[in-house]
Amino acid sequence: MKFYLPTKIFFEDNYIQSIDEIKRLGDKFLIITGKSSKINKSLDELLKILNKLNKKYEIFDETLENPPKEMINNIIERYGKNWDVIVGLGGGSPMDTAKAVAVLCKNNISVEELYDSNKYNSAAKILCIPTTSGTGSEVTQYSVLTINNVKKGFKHDVIFPDVAILEPKYTLTLNKELTVSTALDALSHAIEAFLSLRANSFSDLYALKAIEIISLNLNNLVKDLGNYELRKKIMLASLYAGISIGITGTTIAHSLGYSLTTEKGIKHGLATAVFLPFEIEHSNSSKANKIKEILGDPLEFLKSLNILIKFSVNEREIEAWSQRVLNSSHVKVTPGNYDFSKIKETYKWLLEKSGLYGGNK
Ligand SMILES: [Fe+2]
Prior knowledge:
Helices cover 50% and strands 12% of the residues.
């Protein structure tokens, strides 16, 4: 069994305990973020600390969802490589962008070469401050980018963040749609990690706890978005789920969902979670029963959150998506022997049988 997690994690609602860590990281900080960090005040708070510590910083606040390689190249062109610390402040996209930029700062390689782990063995320091509860990127060695319109993750121990600061209060301003889609990303991580053929007793421990917390609290949070205690619970679940996929990686639901996100604009967490009932049912394992014991019927759980995704799709697209899934690394770690026709069947199940597909937009 292997469990390696070099990230220092602070789960709290003020920076006081982590300020020394920020001080130690370096002197020059490049902050990668989006617009929401101004709304939830996380950017203000971070800048206050950096100013107090007399650190030099620049801010890139135009991070796009599903970070495209062109944006990563633009950041390097605009801000150069002379940074001690790259900060990922926001959801998965700023954090995954920060990880890519951190490697490029220390290596003369292209974005495509990030996918060849032999080409590099260093990165600038990485500080992650998530402001959504779902991605888990703050504690993983993964970064998912979009290369030529295909969503694809790279993996390397050097992109484990050095420090992760989780402050549940930053998630209080998330709307219902984002709250649900990001929490379902966390649920997908936990369920996929639990079912994965790479699961071990460390990952099971974190994955089961995450499933339990989400099943007990997500519906209540949706009805009471300003409830701090519930926000805190879901953020903890997201952290646990992130730790579990750091051990196992994700499985087929993630691979199936990627095309729905890049080609149809369906949010990552939703695009992934809609395949969970199928994946659980076809895992043929006692683990499936364990999940149902905690969550109840997985399809009913999604329906209780009013999940209904809409997009137009044709046969040719399903064939292309299925081929992409078949070529992905997720297939061999997923129980259930997925071949091309079973992968196609999974898409058909979503469209025709699940009740989660709402037809053309
Ligand atoms: Fe995910």
